[in-house]
Structure formats: structure tokens, C-alpha cells
Write a structure and sequence with these properties.
The structure is a homodimer.
Chain A: H1 7-16, H2 23-30, E1 34-39, E2 44-46, E3 55-61, E4 64-69, E5 75-81, H3 89-93, E6 100-103, E7 107-113, H4 114-123, H5 125-151, H6 154-171, E8 179-181, H7 186-193, H8 197-209, E9 213-216, E10 219-222, H9 225-232
Antiparallel strand pairs in A: 1-7, 2-6, 3-7, 4-5, 4-6, 8-10, 9-10
Helix pairs in contact in A: 4-5, 6-7, 6-8, 6-9, 7-8
Chain A binds a DNA duplex through helix 8.
DNA sequence: CGAAAACTTGACCCAACTCAACGAACGTGG
DNA sequence: CCACGTTCGTTGAGTTGGGTCAAGTTTTCG
């Protein structure tokens, strides 16, 4: 019966997509100590080498990404995150951060007290299961990215990134499915795909010329989902979007 | 006081490297229903698209790898596993397998009943924490692999794979550190690095010619750890080898 | 000992990179 | 609301790291 506008409601709703939560579980989540924060575009939320912060962040609105750099100064973006994604799951149980997390757009996050969230994850089986599912889906996406960057050519690689983003946005209820804003520079897209910005530019152009992708500024549209899906060699299984409340 | 030679002792020892376990935790682990199995080289332990098996496997001896294929038939190896690694963590909480797991060498595994392990993970905080740490270290390794395959040239990439393997083997007490057997064909190495077998052959040869790597059959040696480490741009932080019992 | 698998090597090719310049869009302050 | 600096996108020309194809050679193993 609570009409609360607490940002923790958002967390409850998120976790409830992964597992059935009873009243007690919900109450436990809703009593977690937390803060709401906003971060400007490209600010760092986590830096490689740091110890975990007091709060574990989840995105309420906006986009973020994870990134590592090589000694030669090349950057690789290793994942993209949208509202409902945890940005700090790794730091819940590891003591030193192994990569950077950066805001892509302006970001609104809820920071949940690390200790409390860890205790809840370890002691409440329903919450624990939801958190495990989140973490395992994230790992599955990493595996797909290794494959994408390791074994697909530039066209497929870029198309694959676009397909994944479209589908995750749709699953999060943030776009209709075949048209969406991807607020990413071509340089950032290059860093996701393991390509150079120049080559991304040309490849993206060729996708547009072939009528597979429409583009206006940072807005992307697909003419034909099954066409781009085939080109991208995109099999949505790895997103485990059906992994919802198998109770 | 138990002198048991149960393979579960191995699991206890493994998890005890991640978290302090008391007698009750140990007893709970030691009572898990399980089977020991052997698998011939290149047999499949998990296939993409499958539902989870009744048992969740952990390697007792031998090596295994995870692998995905593209529609064009290219294969990418996304991780390598050695004794003490879980092969089925993902299937503990996900309902469809998103990749293949294959034996690299002859394999001896302990299969722990999935349901029982899941319950223990969710209900026993110490075991839960150990399992989380395992899973998060695995995720960290995926991030590094995305970076390796996306942003390093062939020499560094291959050197990086060698460094990681050497250090993980050493950490597992399976080699001294600068000389070890890597029972992998050049084709498999290529599939780890996102290269072709021919190019792996030439690149490996050039590393040998430069005196950075020694090779005899499948045995690899490093002349100078800091030299290959620099070439590989290898920073062992991501392996979280110190992530041991922060109690 | 013989067949299959793994490793080598050479010759050639091309997808993607580099370098460099220019144009378009954005945002910020006056 | 315009001027202007900055970031982002676009394009051309030339280069190269790594791929392809194909033919040996060595190793492994039944």
C-alpha cells in the first residue's frame, strides 16, 4: 500500500523482473540505506586501482560504460549500461577495481550502501538469486563481446553493437525497437568495436548506403530487423531476456 | 579429524582461498551430493542452447575452455579453465546455456548437484561470498579478454594469453612460474587471440627468435618475466589473485 | 609403420589503419 | 542570438598487419 516515490522502488521493480519477491523481500530492499546522485557526462564513477566506494551504484536514468586502456593508450569499451543496470556489482565482492566506469550521458544513479547490499545479497535468498542473475547475464554479454571483437568483420561488429543496444533498450522499455537514440560518438563506437573512428565512419556509412541502417545525428533506425540481425550474426539468446522469474 | 579423500575436500580448499570457512560451512560443503567424472579431450561438457544439467562441474584435473561460434563458422575461445575452476557457474542461475564448454585435455571433474549447490550458495553467506568472488573474478577476466582481442596487436595479444596462463597456473600451484606446458594447438591459441593459425605460427616464432619466449613442443618458457610482461602489457591486477580471505 | 593432425613456409591480397585536411554541429559567453 | 572555438564527422590517398591459399614437413599416435 505504500505510495512511496523512493528510488528504491526502481530497484525493487528491477530485481522483481529476475525473481519473485514477497513482501518481506520488498521491505528489506526498501529499507536499504542509499543516496541519489547525478553525474555529468564523461565523469568517472569508478577508477581502475581504486578501492570500492561506500555506495554501490545502479543507473536510474542515463547511460554509462566500462572501459580499460592499454599501455599504448588505446581504449576499449567493454560494456554499455542503461537504466536498471548495476555499475558496481564487481566491487561488491572484489577489493580493487580492475577497470573504469564512466558516464556516457548525464546520469542519475542510486547508490546503495555497499555493506548493506552485500549483506542482503548474502542473507536473503530471493535478492541473492536476482543479483546472481544480473551478474551472470553481464558475464554472458562479456563473452559475446569477446566473440564480436575477436571474430566478426567491421560491418557485423558494428551492426551487432547496434542490435544489442536496440534490444536492451526495448527490453528496458526505453524505445520501441527499431528506432532509438544512441548518444555515442563514432570514436566511442570504435572503442566498443575494437576499430578506428575513421573505419567506423566509413562502415556506418556503407550500412546506411545499403539501406540497412538509417541515421540522423545520433538517432539510429533499422529498415528491417531480420536483415540487420542476419548481418550482425545477432542471436539474442545471450541477453537472457526471458530469464524472468522462473520461480 | 576426517581423513576423507573426498573430492569435495578439493572444493572446500578452493572456496577457502576466497573466504574464511568455519566448521559448519565445511560440513555443509562436504555433504553436497556429487559425482566424479572423467571426460576425454575435446568432449563437450555444455552446449549452447541446452538447459542446465543436474550437476554443476568443477575441474579436479585437466584443462577446459569456453567457446562460441559465429554464423560464418569462425570460433572464438572466450576463456580457459584450470583445476579449481567452476565450469557451470553461469548455469547455476541461468536457464539456457549461451555458449559451449569443452575439455581441452582429459578432464576429471566433480559434478555437484545443481540444486543443492544453488541452495547452499543462496543460504550460506560464507559459501555465497566465495562463489560470488569466483564469479566476479571470471567476469574480470572476460573484460580483460575483450580488451586484449580488441586493442592489442598480435605479439602482445599472444604474449598476454601466455602471461595469464602462466600466472594462473602458478597461483594454482601447478607450475613454478616461467616454464609450463600449454597443451593447446596453435589453432586453439589463434581462437583465443582472435587471429588465424598461420599468423599465430609466425608471431610465436618471432617471439622465440627475439628470445622472449622459449618453446619446445607445447612447453613454453619465458627468459625474462618483466620483458614479456611489458610486451604483453600484462597487469595481473585483473586476476585478483590477492582476493583471498579478506574476512 | 602409416595415417592423421599439427606445424611451417612462401606468395599474394585486402580489410582496416594512418595521416592529414576539411566541413558540420554544438555549446558557451558576450 | 550571433561569433567563435571545440568537438565530431567526413573524405582522400597511401600503407600495413594480418588474412588467404596452398604446399610441404614434422609430430603424434593407433
Amino acid at each position: 500500500m505504500q505510495s512511496s516515490a523512493s528510488p528504491l522502488d526502481f530497484v525493487v521493480r528491477k530485481l522483481a523482473t529476475r525473481v519473485a519477491l514477497d513482501e518481506r523481500d520488498r521491505a528489506a530492499i526498501l529499507s536499504l540505506p542509499h543516496v541519489v546522485r547525478t553525474c555529468p557526462p564523461s565523469s568517472y564513477l569508478v577508477r581502475e586501482g581504486e578501492s570500492p566506494h561506500k555506495f554501490c551504484a545502479l543507473i536510474l536514468s542515463g547511460l554509462a560504460f566500462r572501459q580499460k586502456s592499454t599501455a599504448q593508450g588505446a581504449r576499449q569499451i567493454v560494456s554499455l549500461h542503461l537504466p536498471g543496470d548495476f555499475l558496481d556489482l564487481q566491487n561488491l565482492f572484489l577489493e580493487i577495481s580492475d577497470h573504469n566506469v564512466q558516464a556516457l550521458t548525464a546520469l542519475e544513479t542510486i547508490g546503495i550502501e555497499r555493506d548493506a547490499l552485500r549483506q542482503l545479497t548474502l542473507h536473503n535468498p530471493a535478492v541473492g538469486k536476482a543479483m546472481w542473475t544480473e551478474a551472470q547475464v553481464e558475464a554472458s554479454i562479456y563473452r559475446e563481446w569477446v566473440t564480436n571483437v575477436g571474430r566478426r568483420d567491421a560491418r557485423s561488429r558494428i551492426a551487432h553493437v547496434l542490435c544489442e543496444f536496440a534490444l536492451r533498450m526495448k527490453a528496458a522499455g526505453l524505445c520501441a525497437g527499431t528506432r532509438f537514440e544512441l548518444p555515442v560518438t563514432q570514436e566511442q563506437l570504435a572503442d566498443m568495436a575494437g576499430l578506428t573512428p575513421v573505419h567506423v565512419n566509413r562502415t556506418l556509412r556503407s550500412l546506411v548506403e545499403d539501406g540497412i541502417v538509417h541515421r540522423d545525428r545520433r538517432f539510429i533506425g533499422f529498415s528491417n530487423w531480420s536483415e540487420i540481425r542476419a548481418l550482425a550474426d545477432f542471436n539474442p539468446l545471450y541477453l537472457h531476456l526471458d530469464q524472468i522469474d522462473p520461480a
